[in-house]
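Researcher: Re-running this chain for the archive, since the previous output was lost when a drive failed. Same request as before.
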Amino acid sequence: MVKKFIPSRKSSSRKGDNGIVLVVGGSYIYHGAPVLSSIAALKCGTDLVYTCVPKINVSPTRAISPNLIVIPLVDQKLTRGAVNKLVGVLPLNLDSATIGMGLAIQDRNSLLQLVKSLLDRDVRLSLDASALVPEILPLLKDKNVVVTPHAGEFKHLFGESPPNAKIQRIKLVEKYAKDHGITILLKGPTDIISNGKITYLNETKTPAMTVGGSGDVLSGLVAGMLSKSRNALECAAAAAFINGLAGKSAQKKLGLHLTSTDILDEIPYVMKPFDKIV
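Model: Regenerated C-alpha cells:
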C-alpha cells in the first residue's frame, strides 16, 4: 500500500523535479532539530532542502553537513521582521515546508505570518513542536497540511488529551482532523494518521525510538513526501511507515543504544524496495 503512495521518479528528471523543501526550526538550545529534519528530507529522495535557522545556529548547521543550503534568520528567534526578510529570499518554486522543530518563537503572529505566506504560495506544510498552537488552526482548513503532534502537543493544539484506549484515541483524531480540515499524525507506539475520512494505523512498537530527535526525522520525511505529492494523508502515512522501518532497522543493528542520526542512516536502505523509475 505504501509503495503506491510514493511517486515514481522519471529517468529524465532534473534537479528540482523531485521536490524542493524548506525547513524552519532551531534555537539556542535545540540546534540539531532542523538538521535532522533536513537530512531526513534529503535521504527520502528530495532534490533540494533549504534549512532556515536563527543566526546563532548558522555556522554549526553549515559545518554539520555540506548537503544543506542554509538560510539565516536575521534574529535569534522567529519575529515578524525575520519572517519578512525570509519570505523575500525564499525560492519561488518551493514544493513543501516543515516548521517548528526546536524553533524559538518570539511572537506568535510571526508564525501565523510565515504559515499564511507559504500557503498563499501553494506550499504544502508539515507542522510540528512549537508551530502547533491553537491560533494556527483557522489558517489550515482544507489546505495540504499535516500536523505531527505527540500526545502533549495534541492537547495543547486541540485542548483535549488523547485517551489511552485505542478506539477512543482514533475517534478523537478523526474528529479533529475532520473539524479542522487537516491531516493529523498523532505519534505514539501506534501512530494514528487521519484526514477525518480515512485513517491509517502504523504500529512501530520500537522502544528505542523514544530517543530525542526521532520526531524531527519524521517531520523531515513528511515534508519530503509532500514535496512529491499533493495527497497529505498518503504522504503522512508513508512518512510514518518509513520512519518506523528505519527505526526498526537501526534497533536491529544497535539494540536500544541508537540515536536519531542512526535512524537517518537507515532511511535509504529501507526505502530502496519502494524505488520506481519510469
